[in-house]
Amino acid sequence: MSEHFMIDKDKQQKLQNIILKLHQGASVAEVKKEFATLIQGVSAAEVAQMEQALIDNGMPVEEIQHLCEVHVEVFKASLDKEKISSKVPGHPVQTMLDENKAARARLRALKKAVLAWRFGLGQKEQVLAALDDMSKIIVHYTRKENQLFPYLEKKEFTGPSRVMWGKHDEIRALFKEAHSKVEQNDKSAISSLHPLAGKISRMIFMEEHILIPEAVRRLSDEEWAHIRIGEDAIGFAWIRPGAVYDPYLVLAGAVTAKPQPAAAIPESTAIPAVGATHHASPVPASDLVELATGKVPAGLLSAALATMPVDISIVDAQDKVVYYSDSPDRIFPRSPAVIGRAVQNCHPQKSVATVNRILDAFRKKEKTRARFWLEMGGRFILIEYRALYDAAGAYIGTLEFSQDLTELRTLQGQRRLLDWD
């Protein structure tokens, strides 16, 4: 388990006061002098605890999100002195650091392409190529949101997931805006590209000097192993993790066989070929899931749910995610760390009020369905929430499902015969 640490309460209060002055409109220059008296020995832990305390005491997350880059500027001198201990290749921390190193190189390439385009020495296609390459960092952010943040939330450290996710979305929006303008050969895109590069650079700094040190301090070796096991479900930006770090070895204490995917169908439940005689032993009763209209082998049910042409998530009455369908073609990424996570934390902060409104209406039976649709990457996506009630009518949870309707919207006429050509 990570080493316990103590924070000077008096210094913590003074740090909070400085940030509160910033939130009340003071400039960075105005607080720097006051901060100079506290700069000696300030750690990433104190910065992180300060922001977490502000959230816990009721400060809107949006305010901290709006000014967290100012916080970085204020604390940069002291945080620059902190070093992250290197990890073996494949450890989630080392993977994040390797991706950040790759991101810095892409940032330099993007800035070079933009400069050449600005002065007529390059083409928009070069900027688009550099921008598309740089946008792979979104996978890095998505992995943080779905794998690292849930484990920090279990430690009641919710600041990163609430604040950083908002900053990720700002970067996503700038990517979209810049790409659209560059495609149109609109050089006003440069006004989007400069803040984009700045936000990415500051996010790298916040990760390496605040988020990662705090995560290393708070999470155990076993928790890092579970994080690594779930990372492949999300993917990686530019690099592949090294193979030196073995999470299964960490968890087992010895080399063990890696478990089969949950969706694998046990041999006893496999469907025989047409015309074949099935001699497999009956499925043990303990392996059957009893449903309202039948009993299904657990492996068969899991495979069926994962094969459905929709993304499924189930949230219980306590707003905890208890299931998601692990389809290889998911529209929105999910990983094992989401299980047991508050559904509110599975959405960016700007969407939490809407999530709570839906759940509250479901509980009160004011509504039983909420439906949204959007266009994403040229695809038409339907997202729907359905309230779940037991036989007595009591609210027991919510079903969320998403479906890509792009091809279905083009269907016309009818097809009544099998056509596999």
TrEMBL record:
Superkingdom of this protein's organism: Bacteria
Domain Hemerythrin-like residue range list: 91-214
InterPro entries in UniProt: DUF438, Hemerythrin-like, PAS-like_dom_sf
Pfam families: DUF438 (PF04282), Hemerythrin (PF01814), PAS_10 (PF13596)
CC terms in the record's Gene Ontology section: plasma membrane
Span of domain DUF438: 15-80
Transmembrane segments: none
Name assigned to this protein: DUF438 domain-containing protein
